[in-house]
Amino acid sequence: MNINTWKNYYFKIISDFGFDENKDLESAKILKDLILKYKNNIDISKLKEIINNKVVYIFGAGPSLKRHINQYKSMENKTDSLICAADGSTKALMEENIIPDIIVSDLDGDMEYIIKSNSIGSIVVVHAHGDNIDKLKKYVPKLKNIIGSYQYPIKIDNLINYGGFTDGDRCCFLCERFNPKKMVLCGMDFGVYITKYSRPNIKNDVEVGDEIKIKKLKYGKELVDYLIKNSNVRIEYME
Fold first, then answer.
1. pLDDT by residue (tens digit) across 160-185?
2. Distance (Å, rounded) from C-alpha 178 to C-alpha 153?
3. How far apart are CA 96 and CA 79, in angstroms?
4. How far apart are CA 33 and CA 175, in angstroms?
5. At what angle do helices 3-17 and 211-230 cross, to 10 degrees?
6. Four-point Cα dihedral 162, 160, 104, 112, nearest 10
7. Domain boundaries, the chain
8. Distance between CA atoms of 159 and 63, rounded to whole angstroms?
9. What angle do CA 32, 105, 141 make, to 5 degrees?
10. The pTM is what?
11. pLDDT, tens digit, for every residue of 24-52?
């Protein structure tokens, strides 16, 4: 998705939710400054190196997550595969001794697992938006091998903006950008249910999401549908 197409989606979304576009821009600039200060980023070319021509398994944090992790574990040939985890799904993967190659996170998942996975070798694509400025300041200094991501629709040097609104669909737009052989979507249900991996503070393993979360998932589904329709990459859901 080019930035002009994303711009149309972006302003529709922030209008619908009542988000502050100026805070989105502020957060992007703060992330850029943090990366310049701590110099803990890697070049974007590294993503192309590891994604190009791979079968990419993208794990969201929906109710099918654990089932799909088990299906992935039972596969015989995974030599040309790569795992991209959306935020809180990192914990579920690590519980099964799987370390994601890439984590896409706005830092509201279980940060203990994201930091641990990063220390072992996961690249973390840190996403800035208006509601996570405090988390950027807290966690960016604790991470290494990061790439900065933002959503305000103008070009900002040294950060990426390939489109996407939730961590799950941002994973998809990110990976599609670097020409994988195929993308397989796992744990990406886009329904009304959320899990403890998506929202660590809920009481049960799976609950009906609140109105805002359900609306976010609907936009996530709309954006993934756009990508499936418009991409030259084969994209399919794990059954």
1. 999 999 999 999 999 999 999 999 99
2. 20
3. 18
4. 25
5. 160
6. -160
7. 3-237
8. 32
9. 50
10. 0.96
11. 999 999 999 999 999 999 999 999 999 99
